Structure formats: C-alpha cells, structure tokens
Amino acid sequence: MNTPLHVPASPAVDTLFLGYPEAARLVARRGVVACLRGMVEAIESAFLRWPEFDKSARTAAHSPDGVIELMPVSDARHYAFKYVNGHPVNTRQGLPTVMAFGALADVRTGAPVFLSELTLTTALRTAATSVLAARRLARPDSRTMALVGNGAQSEFQALAFAALAGIRELRLYDVDAEATRKLVGNLRPWTERLGVVVKACASTRAAVEGADIVTTVTADKAYAKILTAGMVESGMHINAVGGDCPGKTELDAAILSAARVFVEYEPQTRIEGEIQQMPADFPVTELWRVLNGSAPGRQSPREVTVFDSVGFALEDYAALRYMRDLAHEAGMAVALPLVPQLADPKDLYGLLAAAEANERQARPATGPAAVPAERGDATALPAGMAFAAR
Ligand SMILES: NC(=O)c1ccc[n+]([C@@H]2O[C@H](COP(=O)([O-])OP(=O)(O)OC[C@H]3O[C@@H](n4cnc5c(N)ncnc54)[C@H](O)[C@@H]3O)[C@@H](O)[C@H]2O)c1
Description:
It is globular and about 75 Å long.
C-alpha cells in the first residue's frame, strides 16, 4: 500500500472546485430565479467598478466549425479567466454548442483559489446581463418578448425576462421544432408561477410581430440575418446574443444603422459583435456608462435599441465570485490538490523525490520500471491515474 506523500505543514493553496452537478444542485437549492437576480446584482456592481479592472478583448482560436476563447480580467483582488468554445455543429453529435470552465485567482500571490464549471454558469450570467441591459434600454412597459433560438441558453433568457423584467408573453421560434418543444416543456412549471403565456410560433416574423423585446440566441457560424429591417418595429429593444464571433451575426446591418447600439466592451465587440458589419467609427455606447449614469440609455418610447451582446470577461468574474460564495455557504465545493504544498518553496523537486520514494516502497525495485513517470507510458502510471489517449 502507498504511504501518503510526506507533506509538511506549509502555507496551503486551497483551490476549491465546483463541478456541474454541484453547481446545478446549488442553483436548484437557491432557486434559479434567485440566482439570476443575484447575478444581475453582482454583474451590475462589477460594471459600476469598470475603471478598476484591467481589461482586454478575449483571445480566440478559430477553426472551420467553431472557436475556442480565453477571457481574462482582473482587479486588485481577483484575477478571473474563462475558457469557452462555440461550435454550433456540436449538437448534431450530442455535444453542447457552448462549454466552459474558469478560475479565480488571488492577485496578491497568483494562487488559484476557485476552479469551476462555467457552462451552466455562463447561461445564467448571459441571461442576467441581458436583463441588466434591457432594464435600461427596453421600454419600461415591455410585456412581450420574442425568443428566436430555443437551444441551451433559451430557458435562462426566458425565465430572466419573465421573472425580472416584467415579460408576460413569450413567443418562441426555432428552425428545430424539437428545440421549441423542449423549451415549452421546461417553461411549463413556470407559466402559472410567473404569470407568463408561452406561444410557439411558425416563423421568426410571426414571433417578432408586435413584440416589445426581441431576443435572438441562435447558433450558426455564418453571417446570418435572423432579423431583417422589415421585421423591426419602432420602440423595440433587440437583445442580440447569438452573434458573438467573427463571421457569426444575426442582424441585418440596416437594423443597426437605424438603432442606438449598446455594447459590453467596445474593443471586443468591434471584432465579434453585430457591429463587425459596420464601419470602425459606427457609434456605440458601452453599457457601464449607462449603468453609472454618464450616458443615456433609451431616450424615447419610439427609438429602436440594440444590445449587441458578445459576453465579456467581467460578467464571468462576477458570476465566478457569486458561485464561489454560494458554494462556500453550502459547503459544496471540494478542495482540489492543484498547487503543490512544499516544505521549502524552492524545492519543487522534493515533491518528485517523495513520490519516487513512495513508488519504490509500493513496488520493490525491479529496474527502471520502478519509476514509471520516466516511461511516458499511461499504462505505467499508478492505478487511478491512467488516462485514455484520444
Ligand atoms: N453573448 C453571450 O454572452 C453568449 C453567451 C452564451 C452563448 N452565446 C451564443 O448564443 C447562441 C446560442 O447558444 P446555445 O448554447 O443556446 O446554442 P444551441 O446550439 O443550444 O441553440 C441554438 C439554437 O438556435 C437554433 N437556430 C439556428 N439557426 C436558427 C435560425 N436561423 N432561426 C431560428 N433558430 C435557429 C438552433 O436550431 C438551436 O436550437 C450561440 O451562438 C452562442 O455562441 C452568446
């Protein structure tokens, strides 16, 4: 039997880990609406501290079918990053379009203090950000929302707008009727609770006609025109969520020309958002300015407003901290042995020496195979550490 590694008492880095089953349990326990509300508050308070953050546009690795992105941001206390992909083809092979995880680190030491799933958390934070924007940009008497694209994000958008933004009628459309059926089914328990009517529509045009708010949350790596200018009515607010990477849009450029457009972080949205279709000097307003009162939101009941959402790292910073606090409260995160605990911080090799000693003890030496790490062969790793080559 292996004797445990000798780990002397020295400062430990407690990296808490939150996997998706625990994240889902936390959200179920707190209530999805309460979590959405909490995230709206957390994201708003982060946006109100905008100048305190070191910000950059995310870096993207493109491939024919998708994109993988890294999204860093930090303030004096925490560094946060998210890894996220966007592969609209994935659902055809049983994988989600969007998968994500991320971490929070302590800026003073660089120690990673929280590592979390962010697939579920991204859906919550995206819906919360949509509501935060809509509260300033949609007409306050908005009651009807068209929801075009009924995939993984859609329930969160529907619930956030119904519970937190006064929407009483949801009109749904997706090219995949099965996705709409799934959404209708998932919303059924909420219709009475939130007093919301849910209607499946036959086309985008039918869903959008007469709507106060239009949320587009489709996935297609293409210059799509889900909404054309002829569908847009005066006073509408468009919450454009699905166009979030170069070569991937949802709105006809003519809609943007005739609207006031709001973005999260302008340098990133110029590359990734609907406004990638527009000249570099096309006027936009960053949301944080509307939130802190230094720029106007909606100015009249008749104007058309667009929230050109692409997802910004600051939202994930706020969401990570929110989920970490929930996990702490519930005692639901587990400590992950991610960073070595060393008696002498300069003696990293000592960790290996101790591991080798343990290995020797476990299997009496019969030659070089007694130190399997040398062999670069998964089958030689200690039991439980083998991983399949893919
Ligand atoms: N802005 C953000 O912060 C943010 C965050 C998360 C996801 N997203 C984006 O939102 C989009 C949706 O993500 P998801 O996880 O729900 O993906 P998903 O693949 O689960 O769902 C997308 C849905 O769009 C439908 N669709 C595709 N083309 C359509 C069309 N022309 N008309 C109507 N429906 C159409 C698909 O049938 C599918 O049901 C993706 O493009 C994703 O990249 C943006």
